[in-house]
Specification:
alpha/beta, UDP N-Acetylglucosamine Acyltransferase, domain 1, 2 domains, seven-stranded mixed sheet, four-stranded parallel sheet, 4 helices, acyltransferase activity, Vat family streptogramin A O-acetyltransferase, Hexapep, repeat
Length: 218
């Protein structure tokens, strides 16, 4: 076998603070790509689902995370169930309490709904990041530690802060366009193994572009 076993919970049996979260028991409306890991040195990484908040199956919103993402401890995905009705005088959720207040329970279509939360492939999320409902994070993006993400993040960019703001592009537009076509995360394990040096070296991208006919159409 080449590389770690993508079907094991722990990609390194000597490092039980890191797990492949796609191998946790499945949860409704959550989709996790292969090789994506969650790292947590304070709590068990198997408790990843505890970091998905206000995620109610009847609302139908999904959390979708791509392949080869690196997610650090303290992540918080706030889903659409956290939203309050905002077109009245007050946003207070009377209906969730007893004593007759249930009479003004809003229908689902009366609640703010931001849609699915989607994290692309090869995304690095730093410690203690909060991602708000409906956010889309592009492939290859980096989110700095302690950030709160309230709007979409473009592929291969770096964002940080509260609220998270654009810091810089990782590569120029030409290189980003090439990487989005390359989609190395969809290669099989052997092909990834054979190209590890280029995937991780400073000059690797230029080598891929120089010989792109060997990679975009094979």
């Amino acid at each position: 076998m080449i590389g770690p076993d993508k079907n094991k919970l722990y990609p390194n049996e000597n490092l039980k603070t890191v797990c492949y979260i796609s191998n946790l028991p499945k949860q409704p409306n959550v989709e996790i790509g292969e090789y994506t890991y969650y790292s947590d040195t304070k709590k068990s990484p198997e408790k990843f689902y505890d970091h998905i908040e206000y995620h109610y199956e009847f609302l139908g919103d999904r959390l979708i995370i791509g392949k080869f993402c690196a997610i650090a401890e303290g992540i918080k995905f706030v889903m659409n169930g956290a939203n309050h009705k905002m077109d009245g005088i007050t946003t207070y959720p009377f209906n969730i309490f007893e004593g007759g207040w249930e009479k003004i329970t809003p229908s689902i279509d009366q609640l703010p709904f931001k849609g699915d939360t989607v994290i692309g492939n090869d995304v690095w999320i730093g410690q203690n990041v909060t991602i708000m409902p409906g956010v889309k994070v592009g492939d290859g993006a980096i989110i700095a530690a302690n950030s709160t993400v309230v709007k979409n993040i473009e592929p291969y960019t770096i964002y940080g802060g509260n609220p998270a703001k654009f810091i810089k592009k990782r590569f120029n537009d030409e290189k980003v366009e090439f990487l989005l076509k390359l989609q190395w995360w969809n290669w099989d394990a052997e092909k990834i193994f054979n190209h590890l040096e280029k995937l991780t070296s400073e000059t690797g991208l230029d080598q891929f572009i120089k010989n792109q006919k060997d990679y975009l159409w094979d």
